[in-house]
Amino acid sequence: xxxxxxxxxxxxxxxxxxxxxxxxxxxLQCQKMxxxxxxxxxxxxxxxxxxxxVYRSIDALPQAPDATFIGVNREATVSIVDQLSxxxxxxxxxxxxxxxxxxxxxxxxxxxxxxxxxxAGDMPFLGPNCYGYVNYLDGALLWPDQHGGKRVDRGVAIIxxxxxxAINLTMQSRGLPLAYVVTAGNQAQSGIAxxxxxxxxxxxxxxxxxxxxxxxxxxxxEALASRARELNKPIVAIKVGQSDQARxxxxxxxxxxxGEDAGAAALLARLGIARVHALPSFLETLKLMHVCGHLxxxxxxxxxxxxxxxxxxADSALAHAxxxxxxxxxxxxxxxxxxxxRVALANPLDYHTYIWRDVPAMTRAFAAMAxxxxxxxxxxxxxxxxxxxxxxxxxxxxxxxxxxxRETGRLYGMAATLPELMPEHVAQQLMAAGxxxxxxxxxxxxxxxxxxxxxxxxxxxxxxxxxQTDATVLSEAEAKQVLADHGLRIPKSQRCATMARVRDxxxxxxxxxxxxxxxxxxxxxxxxxxxxxxxxxxxxxAASEMTATGFLIEEMITGTVAELLIGVVKDPAHGFVLxxxxxxxxxxxxxxxxxxxxxxxxxxxxxxxSQLKIAPLLNGYRGAAPADMAAILRAIRAVQDYCIAHxxxxxxxxxxxxxxxPADAIAADALLRRSL
Length: 676
Description:
The protein is an alpha/beta fold.
């Protein structure tokens, strides 16, 4: 078991091994940031580095260092790590590359990474192929390059797998207080979730940001999310990168509907980790969460002195999951008293400029807009360029926003429509007063939507994927029967191995009926499905027109309200992805689906179904009879029960369509692929 990362991330002594420019930069950055602990350069030949005496070897150090930056080649890195581990050091940053990430070019890279892990033993390390970290709380920087941050007393922590993105994030000028910026590199030993747990343990950290390229240990991420909920510290993630893993299932519609990103999206949603899709929104969401944590709801009010900006806010909100509730009677009365009769009252509000520079009047107007039904009130303000203009005329709006926040005790923000029109010194002034400065209106709305993401009720552990790769596709009849054994309702049916049996089987089933050709992956597209057959002769003629290895005759279900797809794909990175969507011939046309991870609950399934475009059909559209939701839930639970029982071999399931009627839900077709 690896020791805690605490000594490594919050050190009192730092050793820097190596004499190159990278190592000198580590020493310089610690000196510039006022690190109060011991700094010990280590090099076999140099006498001084940045004015500090140099130790010839690890053994010559006064004591085992809490943290060590190792800036030597990859072979020497393994040896240094072994010495540090044997000597009881707190941990290390392995800067060198050429390990597992280079195995495509160098077959020895994987072996060298294994040797590094063995050398470390239970001593924690970051990397390899890793820039290290910046601790802005204590001025401890195991960081071999420039950075753009400064010391803070409290702030957000960010973890990224990309060292270059980490550098860029430190250069932000948005007023976001950074407590830590940590790079994970190869995550040979310490993964993102492990690092996150250590950072959340610091009382000075208010929120955690994750820039994720790939998710490794699912159980570790579950533990991280659980701990964050316990500490009331929100997590926001930007998940990038495309995975080939979900592409393994290419037989069903489910695989294409779920897409490569469905597993990651379902995982983050299940864990209550807010997700954004761009770095600017990532930073703005962290800024919001630093001040207030999660928003209780997605309701907003905006105030601007321009009708164009009010319209822009309303239109921009269409791309984000936020709403602008209409003004209530109290808001309208108070706003009218503050603004007079010449302003049309609405949310978003254009308050014109009649009261500009009148701080008491502006404060009253801004205070009047806030309400318990509003999660955050945002003033839209663009500041002029200080190099060409005089921005002092905007001091009134800063004072009024801060005054309204203090008077009402409610949450306020100030958003510039263009990110560059929110000066850093203004952002810092607003942050100090608890008013959130947003750099960009669209980014502000994205941040609010992310922060208002509902926190899920803690659920059972994620069903972990198996490591099987071989698979066999069952016939439709076999797939239906094994699912029926777990409670899935299927039509009355008979299999016919030869044409000669078609007429007899047809009579047994009754009419109307459906004839299907076996041995065909996508039957409808291949002409291997015939509907509404009303006689044995009809069935025989239909069979003679198909190229099939056998035939399946089924009763035809009538009274359809809607057709659903229920699919499960094993995603090696995220578990078993359950996809629910519009089924039948509408599957590709509508592309209407939502994904969850197994196991899931009835409430989560119902919430997912309510988000589908075809939800009105299920609920009874324009007076039509609704579908039997209890039967639909039973069908989905039956598929889930099979998945849980056969987790060690399952690769893929698809029920499409599940025919939903006012009284039942019947699987008209099924595909099942599993390992032997």
